[in-house]
Amino acid sequence: MIKRDIVYFEKPGGQNTDDTIRLAVERAKELGIKYVVVASVSGETGVKAAKAFAGTGVKVIVVGHHVGFSGPGERDLEDRYLSELREMGITVVEMSHALSGVERSISRRLGGASRVETIAEALRTLISVGTKVCVEISLMAADGGYVPVDEETEIIALGGNWPGVDTACVIKPAHSNSFFDLQVREFICLPRDKSRK
């Protein structure tokens, strides 16, 4: 039997970012985690996480929206944060979202929801928006080759109801084409109220 604490925030949102990052650092030290993936739209949360994990030996991977998410050719990561992340040697991932991608284009054009979008919505609604994000960015980091997918590797993923993060999970990562091999092994923190902003 393993006993671990889970922190429940009263409400979702960015006001939980600093606590989420602090709790993730503590759990990474406790478990000897070597990889952390963190969702960051503007890059601000990525910079905060990178600074918090500095000197711990943990590799931080920041996952942003894919270019074009907000409009054709538009990058949501702000230049000032992107520059700071690059100066710190942080890996930044901007690629199609694992739980939408091309399927979102089809559902927007033809209506209905795809099976992949249904998985995303189930995670968002039943557990938390941040849990869906944690699963998605773990897949994306694995697909990009930024985290190993061997039997021994566990990572920590941070996501949320942006801006900021409010959910942290310990995850056994997998590639998108092996989605059902991914395991959410532990929750470190998440909002108790599942309402979306």
UniProtKB/TrEMBL annotation:
InterPro entries assigned: DUF1867 (IPR015074), Pyrv_Knase_C (IPR015795), Pyrv_Knase_C_sf (IPR036918)
Protein name listed in UniProt: Pyruvate kinase C-terminal domain-containing protein
Residue ranges occupied by any Pyruvate kinase C-terminal domain in the UniProt entry: 19-168
Domain of life: Archaea
Native source species: Methanocella arvoryzae (strain DSM 22066 / NBRC 105507 / MRE50)
SUPFAM superfamilies: PK C-terminal domain-like (SSF52935)
Pfam families to which the protein is assigned, alphabetical: PK_C (PF02887)
